[in-house]
Amino acid sequence: MDSQEIQKIKNQLAKTDYENDLKIVSQKKPKVPMVLFFGRDNFSDNSKYLFLDASRNNYGFEPLWCSFNPQLVQELLALNLNAVDLSINAGKNIAFLIKAPLCVFTISPNESLQISAYAAALAGAQKVQLWHGVGTKQLDLALTDKADLGNPSFVHQLVEASSIDYILSPAQTWDRQWREFFGVRKIIRAGMPRNEVLTRKPLEHELVGSYKKVFKSPDAFKILWAPSFTYIGDQPMWMNQSIYEKILAPFHARKIKVELVIKPHPYDSRLENEIKNNPLVISPGPDIYPYLNQVDLLITDKSSIFTDFLHCNKPIIFIKNNRINETDADNIFMSQLPGVETELHSVGAAVERVLTKDEFVQIRAELKSKAFDTSAADACKEINSYFAELVPTLVA
Fold this sequence. Notes:
The protein is α/β, with parallel strands linked by helices. It contains 14 helices and 12 strands. The strands form 2 sheets. It has a 7-stranded parallel sheet. The chain has a 5-stranded parallel sheet with strand order 9-8-10-11-12. Helix 2 packs across helix 14 (about 380-395) and helix 9 packs parallel to helix 12.
């Protein structure tokens, strides 16, 4: 072992010692009444809508958006919204993070925090996972029998994903799933915050982080194709020109004005050139939810957006995807989907079927009532009111 390798080990040991010490400091440090909200790199998803509601109303705690995106932080500050730039002044940020009693995530804490010292600084905070929807996929701890537990990176991912104290569960049907995925037992029962905007017009600041415009033709039949992420090495299904023609052909035959928009999964942002050179494809990053209730037909391969779209009561077509790792038979969507399921090459026939008759109106209503026990319109108020009671107990 040469001197360079020895120094590398010493540095790693020093880093581990520092972060262990920082965890102790965080656990001992008295807290102040604030709630930290973490999201994706852009301003979107459940934590966005919950943060904005907390910023509009006085729940007795200070809401702060935490991000590694300096441009977003500056935009929020210009709107008099509290935001913290995690990309600079790490020492100052750590001094701030150790005072937090409660933090809220939409994706894995590891993905949100990025820096292990920040995770250590939040060791004394309670953590709430809103997640980004309910659907049919298996996640994290539910995969241990299939994955390689000899892989340190995967085990670390499991630790980060399960390092939460509370989870948002919009219906009792999902409670067991969350225990299996994340090992969490404390449930917050409310709707998904991102679904509120499906029930009404966007409020002030809810268009921040979203598209300026999704659909060009207000009088056209609007189709949104929102697939799950593309596995590395696979060809994105949304790049196939012949599929576009199959989707649109039934409308052209009926002389119905139609507009197709394709929104890739946020993880497909790496396919920048393919997205930029395709006029039907919009950027994966911005928030689509302020526009989702404009959609007349959703096409997806069981991305969790379909469960949210049940609030719009519009037709859905499901593209079969054998790469999706699905849950067990207890999942309400495994025995019955709220729409037509088809192979990709037969999507034209599925569209024809939808245009001929909407067969799934009653099924959509039944599955929506099972997937969501509470009103989407009250989701943010219910969750932030829960925080209003919880935070004082963590600060005391």
